[in-house]
Amino acid sequence: MQRASILEYPVEKPQTLRERIVEFIKDSIVSGSLRPGERVPEQEIAANFGISRTPIREAFRQLESEGFITVTPRKGAVVSPITDNDVSEFYAIKSLLEGYAARTACPKLLPKDLKRLESLNAQMEKAGARGDVKGFFNLDSQFHDTFLIACGNEKLLALVHQLVGQFERFRITALALPGRMNDSVRQHAAIVAAFKEGDANLVGTLVMANAERSGGLLVEDILKERTKYGAH
């Protein structure tokens, strides 16, 4: 009997308690169970997980650094608002930096890099089909890291990582919008095709368009929600 390759069945690293709490709160925010301005129920979370508040506060520090919550001493944590201006500014910077990185990386990509991009996009398509936003997000990050690393500019890589880490919430929220994951897969396929053609200018344009599309859709959703709830 042929033995199955363990490489085909990667085992996910078990999550720590802090990571489980972080994912729980992120899911609650992205799904809308916790809305902007609402207090994160620290005591309720502690009771549900059967734990003390110490690991929750550790999770809060990570969530605050990623833009999900704002922690005020003696008042607790509340879900941070997402403004259309913040989103527009973030995606404008992201599109410029990644567009430059993609153009620079284009002549440097190796066949293995192109194969990796294709494989990641195929996996993203599957994640989108099953509605796995977090899985899609992780694969999308690897897709972009492939050409960010290949461009050979370590300072640019660090800058982009710092930027996207601080505004991780925007990216996850944008991917959760109806149809966005499938839309992104199509854009990524065009990016891979341009990389294969060695068309650096087209690659840069497509990568910028990918970021701008996410930002535009998220801004539309924010404005729609603002109208819905009568916020100003």
Describe this structure in words.
With 232 residues, the chain is mostly helical. The chain has two domains: 17-79, Winged helix-like DNA-binding domain superfamily/Winged helix DNA-binding domain (Arc Repressor Mutant, subunit A, Orthogonal Bundle); 84-229, Four Helix Bundle (Hemerythrin (Met), subunit A), CATH 1.20.120.530. The chain is 70% helix and 3% strand. The protein has ten helices and two strands, in the order αααββααααααα. It has a two-stranded antiparallel sheet with strand order 1-2. A hairpin with a 3-residue loop joins β1 (69-72) and β2 (76-79). α5 (111-129) packs antiparallel against α9. The N and C termini lie far apart (66 Å). Mean pLDDT is 89; it is low at 1-11.
Label the structural class: mainly alpha
Q: Mean pLDDT, as a whole number?
A: 89
Indicate the CATH architecture of the largest domain: Up-down Bundle
- Percent of residues in helices: over 70%
Quickly count the helices: 10
Radius of gyration: 19 Å
Strand element count? 2
Neighbour order of strands in the largest sheet: 1-2
Largest sheet: 2 strands, antiparallel
Order of helices and strands: HHHEEHHHHHHH
Specify the CATH homologous superfamily of the largest domain: GntR ligand-binding domain-like
Oligomeric description of these chains: single chain
